[in-house]
Amino acid sequence: MNTTTAAVLSCFALGLGGVSAFLAFGSKGAVGTTQAASAMKSDSGATAELSRAVDDLRAEIAEMKERSELAQVTPRALAPTLDEDQIARAVAAYFESHPGIEDGPIDPLAVKELGTMEDIAALLASSDEMMMGGLWKRIVEEGRDEEVLAYFKALADANPNDPEAQLALGQAYLGRTQEAGASPLAGKYATLADQALDAALKADPQHWEARFTKATALSFWPPVFGKQASAIHEFETLITQQSGQTPNPQHASTHLLLGNMYHQTGQAEKALAAWKSGLELYPDNADLASQIALLSGQ
């Protein structure tokens, strides 16, 4: 390689940070090199031609640098930001565009296509617990799971102080955990779910659904991992928080599951007390009454 060609290539390499950067952007930058090579055919015009080639390269480098900076926009800037009203509108729009599906909990088998990420988010938002498993099964089978998780991760990253965004991410990880079965992926996604739920509780320590979801998820860990004590602590915290609120039938589940955890860890008296205190608040709850009867031998 002669001095003239080397000078042009050196200028290009310095501008982009190396030959690899040039390859990443394509072959457009080779124009300047070609011009410089042509210039060498005429000794009298070599200097002027090289100057023009360098100017061309500088312009191209500036253009490619700008394109590179645009390509490196952080996920936070591109992440979707949805509030509850927007989610509700997305759900309504989904049902409107899919007239064959009735409003309410969705049967995943009745959905012909999962559609866009917004469609999937609407499906997840409107599915009950029974339907959620089937929906995640379809998401995984169709290879959309990483896309779905990335969507909710971007949403959570863009809204670090929004407990709803963190909760949605945690629930997405839990949905993927269920589909992982007994594979090592289950532990990975369950851990990520717990971290997301911690983020939700950091944003709002009084968020009932986030804490209940965390406590329930911890209760499903195999005993060998020693998560029972943490699950009990979260349920006990919920009981304390609920005591200062107007009774809500949904809150009966906290008493039920806390009693179950006490019973699993050999604390029968505490289990019975948890169920009885729950039944006093929610006398129509059949599950609490059933657990009390079973433990009491009635």
**Mean pLDDT figure:** 74
Residue share in helix: over 70%
Largest sheet geometry? none
- Rg calculated over all Cα atoms: 30 Å
What ranges have pLDDT less than 50 throughout 5 or more consecutive residues?
A: 1-44, 64-82, 90-95, 97-105
* Count of individual helical segments: 16
Structural commentary:
The protein is an all-alpha fold and 298 residues long. It has two domains: 3-72, no CATH class; 86-296, Tetratricopeptide repeat domain (Serine Threonine Protein Phosphatase 5, Tetratricopeptide repeat). 72% of the residues lie in helices and 0% in strands. The chain is elongated.
Question: How is this fold's topology laid out?
Answer:
Blueprint: H1 3-16, H2 19-25, H3 30-39, H4 46-71, H5 75-78, H6 84-97, H7 117-126, H8 129-141, H9 145-158, H10 163-180, H11 184-203, H12 208-219, H13 228-243, H14 252-264, H15 268-281, H16 286-296
Helix pairs in contact: 1-3, 1-4, 3-4, 6-7, 8-10, 9-10, 10-11, 10-12, 11-12, 12-13, 13-14, 14-15, 15-16
Q: Which labels suit this protein?
A:
TPR_rpt; disordered N terminus; TPR-like_helical_dom_sf; Serine Threonine Protein Phosphatase 5, Tetratricopeptide repeat; 298 residues; 2 domains; TPR repeat; signal; 16 helices; 72% helix; coiled coil
Structure in a nutshell:
The chain is built from 16 helices and no strands. The chain is mainly alpha-helical.
